[in-house]
Design brief:
The chain is of the alpha+beta class. The chain has helices at 2-30, 93-122, 141-145, 164-173, 245-277, 288-300, 303-322, 329-342, 348-379; strands spanning 34-50, 53-68, 124-136, 152-156, 159-160, 179-184, 210-215, 230-238. Strands 3, 4, 5, 6, 7 and 8 form a six-stranded antiparallel β-sheet that branches. Strand 1 and strand 2 form a beta hairpin. 32% of the residues are buried.
Length: 393
């Protein structure tokens, strides 16, 4: 648990610091005065001023922040005439826009980098005609029968498996009944011989290429799981000559990052619809508590899983921040767009009200999602099984 908490804070800090570093670098490039770059959030522990910027180490280890001179329109009252050109609001709309979107781009680039590293080391996803088990839910019939990740399903009770769809259909056909699964397993993935039910004659030594196991698919599986409790795929990880892997990994990294953008926008849309129409938050939306628990599962999966998790969260942070919502980067862009269209700046009082209202609504959403997380903790001990089809367990 301690390792999970430490990893959670490290991952969160990396994501936020990368985001704020994007703002910091583009602000410097645009000639905007950066008053403070903080590691963590106040209260301040120690600080040192280098040039015109204060670099501070703060008590709360939740990432960091960048404080720009004149970022709030209301600050124009305290800006001295000779410093006007260094204020955020005094810069061109193009310069301000570049600073606003820099954090989002930094998170997106981080996601591409870590996804590229993952694929460079784990292999490139390649479509095959195989049905490969990529995840097994704890306590499921599949786990009890001895199935393992990377097993390849060949036959179900004598019927040849053509694709993932045929496997799903046959599994449903045998719901509540005993069926025999013939699988192929790599020799370096050892197992214990296991005979369940009435199929002992079909049992083959695990030291050979094929194994036959008996299993009964559940009639009423837990939410987020199927009758067997497995996640399957027709993709396998293919390795190329070592000098090709970084380039192929980078291509897959781009595809993975863009794919997650689409998934996250879809999830946010569903959350908004459910919130408006039903007054509820979808159960598969994770807040701070849910992310902490997922971190625990990811840590147990090794370094590559942690890297992929960082990439997924980094895309999440990028997408959420670009939304045209008060208190987010997208909300700040709204003011720049308003100025470009109307040729006048919004009133400082309106901006403060707009951001305050937006922050209050965001806190409200965070509270709702956290309550949702806690409710799932109470209802089930396997909250994370729904994510096993996404992360490569």
């Amino acid at each position: 648990m301690i390792l999970t908490i430490i990893t959670f804070f490290i991952v969160l800090s990396i994501l936020v610091l990368v985001h704020e570093t994007g703002h910091f670098l583009l602000a410097k490039k645009a000639g905007i005065k950066v008053e403070e770059f903080g590691f963590g959030y106040p209260p301040r522990i120690v600080a040192k001023k280098i040039g015109e910027t204060i670099y501070s180490l703060n008590l709360l280890p939740f990432g960091g922040f960048v404080r720009l001179f004149g970022e709030e329109l209301g600050e124009s009252e305290r800006v001295r005439e000779r410093d006007n050109k260094r204020a955020f609001w005094a810069k061109s709309k193009k310069a301000r826009t570049s600073v606003i979107v820099a954090g989002v781009l930094a998170n997106f680039l981080l996601a591409i980098v870590v996804f590229s590293l993952v694929y460079s080391f784990s292999g490139i996803p390649t479509k095959t005609d195989k049905v490969i088990i990529i995840g097994i839910a704890p306590g499921s019939p599949a786990e009890k029968a001895g199935l393992k990740a990377e097993d390849v399903v060949l036959f179900v009770s004598g019927e040849k498996i053509q694709n993932t769809s045929s496997f799903v259909e046959l599994t449903k056909k045998y719901t509540g009944k005993e069926m025999a699964l013939e699988i192929a397993r790599e020799k370096d993935n050892p197992c214990k011989e296991k005979v369940l039910g009435a199929w002992p004659g079909l049992e083959i030594s695990c030291h050979g290429e094929n194994i036959v196991l008996s299993v009964i698919p559940r009639e009423n599986p837990p939410e987020g799981e199927g009758p067997l409790g497995v996640a399957v795929s027709n993709m396998e990880m293919k390795r190329y000559p070592f000098w090709q892997m970084p380039f192929r990994g980078m291509i897959e990294g781009f595809k993975e990052a863009f794919g997650w953008i689409i998934l996250i926008f879809g999830a946010l849309g569903k959350m908004l619809v459910d919130l408006i129409s039903r007054g509820t938050i979808p159960k598969d939306i994770a807040g701070p508590v849910g992310i902490l628990q997922i971190t625990g599962v990811v840590v147990g999966g090794g370094v590559l899983n942690v890297l992929q998790f960082i990439g997924i969260l980094s895309v999440n942070l990028a997408v959420i921040n670009i939304l045209p919502f008060p208190a987010l980067d997208g909300g700040k862009f709204i003011f720049v767009a308003y100025e470009a269209i109307t040729r006048r700046r919004p009133k400082p009082t309106f901006e403060r009200w707009f951001n305050t209202a937006g922050m209050a609504f965001l806190l409200f959403l965070i509270i709702l999602v956290t309550i949702n997380d806690v409710r799932r903790v109470i209802e089930t001990t396997d909250l994370l099984s729904r994510f096993r089809g996404i992360l490569p367990f």
